[in-house]
């Protein structure tokens, strides 16, 4: 893997839902590189979280990158709404529509950086023919739908395969799910450069005690880079 700065992207799925704006400000102030927003529809995944209105509401509180992960199907009808809500990155799952190539084209046409997500059972080969259309590949290291799940070790082989496939393309590889100080260095060693962390980033802190967020993020980054 070429030298690449590791990015920590806390998932607001683990934040205080009653105070999202302050939570977004707090995690960025404490060192988060991106803010990761998990959008779930109760259909593609067994949970319901946020929609475009929530993304639009928190956008003014995020100075950096808002990384919006669309765990919804069908995904195409909602691309424009999430783009208008201020997403910097929109990531769609391979299975979220009949034409992945068209979906990624639509995200780019909406002025947003396209990403593609791979569920644990989805092979790396599923994105082999769309690599020139994506800026981000998100490897699900848990089954999508809930936070706090155990890391699936076998997904690291997929990360290694993807890193080899990507070659010198400027594509970020994310690990999403079960990322902590134990699994983070293994993700990076396999080729990931964006670590999505929920409980590992938010544990022990709050908007009134944000220093814990900073300690968590620094500890995670230090573990990741060795």
Descriptive report:
This protein has 226 residues and is of the alpha/beta class. The protein has helices spanning 20-29, 52-58, 79-84, 100-109, 155-166, 184-190, 199-202, 211-225, and strands at residues 7-10, 34-40, 65-71, 89-93, 113-118, 136-140, 172-176, 194-197. The chain is built from eight helices and eight strands. Strands 1-8-7-6-5-4-3-2 form an eight-stranded parallel sheet. Helix 5 links the parallel strand 6 and strand 7 (172-176). The model has no long low-confidence stretch (mean pLDDT 96).
In short:
This protein is α/β, with parallel strands linked by helices and 226 residues long. It contains 8 helices and 8 strands; from the N terminus they run βαβαβαβαββαβαβαα.
Biggest sheet layout: 8 strands, parallel
User: What does the overall shape look like?
Assistant: globular
Span of the ends, CA to CA: 15 Å
Query: What is the helix tally?
Result: 8
Work out the number of β strands: 8
Any idea what the radius of gyration is?
16 Å
Low-pLDDT stretches are none
- Tell me what portion of residues adopts beta-strand conformation: 15-25%
Order of helices and strands: EHEHEHEHEEHEHEHH
- What structural class do the secondary elements suggest? alpha/beta
Features:
about 230 residues; alpha/beta; 8-stranded parallel sheet; 8 strands; globular
Spell out the blueprint of helices and strands.
Blueprint: E1 7-10, H1 20-29, E2 34-40, H2 52-58, E3 65-71, H3 79-84, E4 89-93, H4 100-109, E5 113-118, E6 136-140, H5 155-166, E7 172-176, H6 184-190, E8 194-197, H7 199-202, H8 211-225
Helix pairs in contact: 6-8
